Amino acid sequence: MTTGDVTAVTVHRLGPLDQVPVGEGRAYVVNGVQVAVFRLRGGGVRAVSAVCPHAGGPIADGQIDEAVVVCPLHQHAYDLVTGCSPTGQPPLRTYPVHVDDEGCLVLVTDGTS
Amino acid sequence: MTAQRTRAERLVVIGNGMAGARAVEEILRRGGGERFAITMFGEEPYGNYNRILLSNVLAGADDEAGIFLNGLPWYAENGITLHAGTRVRRVDHFARTVHADDGTVTRYDKLVIAVGSRPFIPDIDGMRVATRGFHQGVFTFRTIDDTRNMIRYAREHRRAVVIGGGLLGLEAARGLQTHGLEITLLHAGPYLMNQQLDAQGGDVLRRSVERLGIRVETSARTTAMLGRHEVTGVRLADGRVIECDMVVVAAGIRPNTELAEASGLPVERGIVVDDQMRVLDEADIYAVGECAQHRGQVYGVVAPLWEQARVLADHVTGADPAAAYHGSRIATKLKVAGVDVAAMGVSSPEPGDEFVVFAEPSRGVYKSVIIRQDRLVGATLLGDVGKVAFLTQAFDRGLPLPEERVRLLFDLGGPPAEVGVAELADEAQVCNCNGVSKGALVDTVRNGARSVTAAMDRTRAGKGCGSCRSLVAEIVAWAADGEVEEDPSASWYVPGIPLAKPELMARIREHGLKSVSAVFAALAPDGREDARSKMGLASLLRMMWPDDYVDERDARFINDRVHANIQKDGTFSVVPQIKGGCTTAAQLRRIADVAEKYDVPLIKITGGQRIDLLGVRKEDLPKVWAELDMPSGYAYGKSFRTVKTCVGSDFCRYGLGDSTALGIAIESRFQGLESPAKMKLAVTGCPRNCAEAYVKDLGVVAVEGGRWEIYVGGAAGAHVRKGDLLATVDGPEQVITLTGRFLQYYRENANWLERTYAFVPRVGIEEIRAIVVDDRDGIAARLDEAVRAAADAYRDPWREGAGPVTPGQFRTALPLEPLPKVPVR
Ligand SMILES: Cc1cc2nc3c(=O)[nH]c(=O)nc-3n(C[C@H](O)[C@H](O)[C@H](O)COP(=O)(O)OP(=O)(O)OC[C@H]3O[C@@H](n4cnc5c(N)ncnc54)[C@H](O)[C@@H]3O)c2cc1C
Ligand code: SF4
Ligand code: FES
Predict the structure, then answer these.
(1) pLDDT per position as a tens digit, B310-348
(2) Of B199, B219, B251, which residue constitutes the final position of a domain?
(3) Mutation to test the B interface, candidates A41, A61, A93, most B Cβ within 10 Å
(4) CB contact under 8 A, A72 and B558
(5) Which of A42, B205, B262, B519 is 20 to 30 A removed from A11 (C-alpha atoms)?
(6) Which residues contact B766 (CB under 8 A, 6 or more apart)?
(7) Residues of B in contact with A25 (CB under 8 A)
């Protein structure tokens, strides 16, 4: 992710992928912001804000499938790609995340956050 | 298609609300799509939605997406040009042009005005601020945007005043209450809903509303909004001040007439129309919905606009040039703040009228009818609207009335409900919210909608306030000659796999599926995982394969991953096992030490006779368990929870049996047993029932002669039910055997999350007794063996604390609220 573009993005290495069990989520603090990273059974990874917009529930403790995460507190759902809530809540913020060649989780935020 | 359209007549519709969109639907249905090039203007930047359901959105019962009647694609599919978010300022009826705020000028051949109403804002000091419109914290309730803004503001505020005690005000009050606000409802009138109800009915309604925890003030005129930068309270005419940080003004509505006035069209209270819904003296301009005034009437509910839209469409398309609207007799049927209300005709009797009244304020029930010259001229029903279908018919069509007038208010073993449905006229409106008649429902059933849900989906009946759903169900049943099919998905065990439990179990066995992911791969549509189905499947598989279930941790709900119950701030509650509610001094000392060491904010004795440590951080769970050195009490799972016991024969002077010892024995045998829903048990030493055994999933009661009664299917939570007597047996061993057998039968046959209080009546106690006690089907030995295997597989989950099963199993998930959040008492 060295883009050379001046609209600065920040690249964060969160640690090895296997810290996140298959099908579950774990929370990370990135620049003081709480991010939940999920490892899909299908192999992908997704990152969203760790705080449920509904009533502050811990999103990383939610259950997921390939499309959504369901918050453990009141079962509101959020799309893992867009952050939008099919159950009518305000959206979750989403972050680009991938696994690099060394098996390390890499998260990208824009420079300001 | 579009090329042809350029030569078609131009139909322009101003207003994209319920009436405008319905008129266009009716026009399309009459082939108007071929004849007209249709253009719609709507001030709201959306497709069109069911405004009625904003109440549900505010209360969180519907989501926004679910209330849309026609989304943006509908317009494109029907060749309609929609200018959403564009306000029309003026119509030039000489030049036949429509002038919009965005500067565009659109020509029309036919014009429909359907601009609806706006909130009426009473004259109150400080309501508006010069720069911003309404004062900060003041809201109205008309549009989706209003609703969103209220919800957003409600999240951060505590006390709301709602001005207006009519339909809208009550709905706003109830909706905001669901967001945790403290509500005061101020009504200038003498009693609630004084437009629709009589005084006594209004008072009964008030009591029902107050029971919900909403404060009500009637004859309360608001004169001023207080607060410099944002609202901090309101002042009443009598000088009282009510503090609040949010105000909703729902004091009535006024038809939107500025546009018509500015355009030189005839306006009195609304835009004046004739029986064809044509604006007076205008050959090509129509008005429909709340903005129209017909024969001196303007309406403020949806029911009339369905017929108005039909007449308009008949006329403008030429389908029936003689179609005429004669006005609507308004029979309102609503659910207001959770209370069923039906009102029609006059609300107070005149001299010489017969006035029949029944009132039971403590149950929130009030019914009255007014009869003039043997005709029903008015009726009010509150709380119990069972007779509304008949009364509406009698009111609309002047049916003869029963001589025993009380039959107007109650079914006195009279003809059964189907007769009522059969007698309903085809054109009788069943769903007022969406304008669906009995005939329309019957047609959809005849055309293949065989389930209530299917008929509701196709007609939208019952999708408004919901007060007509039971009538819709009756009509569907009647139209299908009793052959209604249940909604298929209602019978699925979990939402993600289209199979009921018995078929699902058969397929799982047949394919030997031992993990949740294997079940999805083999049985879900496209092999698609479903987050909401995982927990139910995990429970089922564990029951089916006690020894070789493949445990995938992501299939577990967080509680089952960390063996504790998640709390609202993301901390957990820890409940150690205390069998039969009996503990020791040493245990108590240890619990106290742990609570101190880990700063446990709240220690609480539970209803199940145990001790709950609330507010434990996830990362502390393993240490807390290790230091407690007690097994898990399973206070978090869908599983066997606890056995509540009374003192019993050892100490109690009434005791007939040793309830404590039996309770402990049962818990030792079945601890942690997974089940479709939680199972709470009790054993009590005599029928005085100190351990509340009659209202447990399974309750055991000692009776004379050393015998024990076993009750199943009781509940005392949100649902209260006394259990059914399953059997009376001779000794504790038999109690344990039958308990195990019943629990296993329940585990195998209940739906996911189906508590025994629903399961037992569904299957029937006789049937259960025949299988579990009398072994009619010869499966008792198998059930006993299955439950034994499951019980033997028990392993205290808290031992996982010593060696986490997954990386970061007990790592914090960083909840928003700083810990601890559970208030310390
Ligand atoms: C919260 C709430 C709950 C309700 N509950 C019930 C109920 O339970 N039962 C019941 O019978 N009724 C209920 N109603 C009333 C019902 O919603 C109305 O009767 C119905 O919406 C009227 O339809 P309409 O098309 O005339 O007006 P609207 O639905 O208001 O549509 C008018 C549309 O025209 C637009 N418009 C206005 N002026 C212009 C302009 N100059 N240019 C372009 N567009 C313009 C508006 O933005 C609006 O979208 C409720 C209303 C509300 C707000
Ligand atoms: S239920 Fe009967 S035996 Fe048990 S404590 Fe109460 S009175 Fe005593
Ligand atoms: S806090 Fe997430 S659903 Fe309520």
Answers:
(1) 999 999 999 999 999 998 877 777 777 778 888 888 888
(2) B251
(3) A61
(4) yes
(5) A42
(6) none
(7) 813
Say whether pLDDT at A74 is over 60. yes
Residue B323 maps to a domain: no
Give residues with Cβ within 8 angstroms of B209, minimum separation 6. Answer: B170, B173, B185, B192, B216, B337, B339
Cβ–Cβ gap B531/A70 under 8 Å: yes
Question: Can you point out the beta strands (E) in B461-580?
Answer: 565-566, 572-574
Instruction: Report ipTM (2 d.p.).
Output: 0.90
pLDDT tens-digit readout, B578-626 = 999 999 999 999 999 999 999 999 999 998 899 999 999 999 999 999 9
Rounded Cα–Cα distance for residues B661 and B657 (Å) = 9
Kindly report the CATH number assigned to the domain that includes residue B167: 3.50.50.60
The residue that leads in pLDDT, B279 or B421, is B279
Nearest CA to ligand 1 atom 5: B52
Q: How many domains does chain B have?
A: 7
Is residue B418 pLDDT above 50, yes or no? no
Number of helices followed by number of strands (H, E) in chain B: 26, 42
Mutation target among B537, B554, B563, B805 for the A interface, most CBs of A within 10 A: B554
Which of B89-98, B166-175, B378-387, B772-781 is predicted with the least confidence, judged by mean pLDDT? B378-387
Q: Are residues B474 and B607 in the same domain?
A: no
pTM for the whole thing? 0.56
The pLDDT score that the predictor gives to residue B4 is 45
B570 lies within 8 A of chain A by CB: yes
**Which ligand 2 atom minimizes the distance to the CA of B653?**
8
Hey, is the C-beta of B528 within 8 angstroms of any chain A C-beta? yes
Q: Work out the average pLDDT over B56-72.
A: 84
Asked if pLDDT for residue B22 goes beyond 80, the answer is yes
Choose, out of A30, A34, A65, A71, the residue to mutate when testing the contact with B (most B CBs < 10 Å).
A65
Rama region for B517: left / alpha / beta (φ>0; ψ in -120 to 50; rest): alpha
B579-588 tens-digit pLDDT: 999 999 999 9
Q: Whose CA is nearest to atom 30 of ligand 1?
A: B116
Which 3 state secondary structure label does DSSP give B810? coil
Q: Kindly give the distance from the C-alpha atom of residue B121 to the centroid of ligand 1, in angstroms, as a whole number.
A: 16
**Domain-ending residue, one of B467, B491, B515:** B491
* DSSP 8-state symbol, B197: S
* Arithmetic mean of pLDDT over chain B: 89
Q: Cβ contact (<8 Å) for A23 and B555?
A: yes
- Supply the CATH number for residue B434's domain: 1.10.10.1100
Q: What is the pLDDT of residue B105?
A: 96
Which residue out of B643, B644, B662, B688 has the highest number of ligand 2 atoms within 8 Å of its CB and is therefore the one to mutate? B688
- Domains annotated on chain A, with CATH: 20-94 (2.102.10.10)
Q: Do B531 and A29 touch (CB under 8 A)?
A: no
B225 and B165 within one domain: yes
How many Cβ atoms from other residues are within 10 Å of residue B118's Cβ? 17
**Distance in Å, CA A51 to ligand 3 centroid:** 9
Same domain? B641 vs B789: yes
Domain, as residue range, for B438: 416-491
| CA-proximal residue: ligand 1, atom 48 (nearest) | B17
